[in-house]
Amino acid sequence: MAVFLDGSPAGERIAGHAAEIATRHAAHLIGMFGAVHPRSAAPAESFARGAEGINQVLERHRRETEVKAVTAGRAFAAVTEARALSSEFRVVWRDSVDDDAALHALHCDLVICSRPKPVDLPQGWTGEHVLLASGVPVLLVPDTWTGSSIGDHVAVAWNGSREARRAVADALPFLSAAQSVTIISIERHNGRSAPGEELLQHLERHEITAQVRTVQAADGPTSQILADQVGEIGADCLVIGAYSRPRSAEILFGGTTRNLLARCPVPLFLSR
């Protein structure tokens, strides 16, 4: 597993969540700190006159970045050592870190990120970017999340799509470790639905006990229905197949994934 870190309080919280999850799954945990090279960055005091002034600004920015990296590394070491976790801390320092984030994630089974992205992380270090660039599943944890754990009661958003099936397959370790699993199937009055009974049987073959919760809904956004259902059953994680239609269309017209990213109060396990 990998977790994206910065030196902020939000970074410390996500490190704690990631350590708890890695402990539950006996996983190796990689803490990743992304640093933009000073010559590619635009610090607030970037206006300078003359070569000496420019070099001073770049040096100041480099030192500030190093301090943040040390802060993040110490926080990460504290939570992993307390749990005797197998772990490592990496500083990815490149002219362009976006592709590097996806590259590092390729060697992980899961990437854990804060939602929204901490301001000190590079612009491209979002869960959405890694998911779309690498195909690695992503767990997005709201920075307001105060639950004691993630994955005790897992809800699965089921609509029978390719993305939903992929998400279930990627989330099998999460589902196996959960104390309770609920399949949420939305039945529309227009007849378009995907009953969850066959998925229930599939999970039983993997020795996962689950229950199906079918929601009758004439209309209304799927994202709102899912968020409401998750709240009603007290789930602490929602598994969903992301972007069943092109992301560009969701950006322009909205969509379940995009709306859930904005409003879902619990951690989201995204796969596609």
UniProtKB/TrEMBL annotation:
Domain UspA stretches: 154-270
Similarity annotation: Belongs to the universal stress protein A family.
Gene3D superfamilies given in the database record: 3.40.50.12370
InterPro entries associated with the record: UspA
Signal peptide: none
Protein name in UniProt: Universal stress protein
Database matches in Pfam families: Usp
Organism encoding this protein: Candidatus Brevundimonas colombiensis
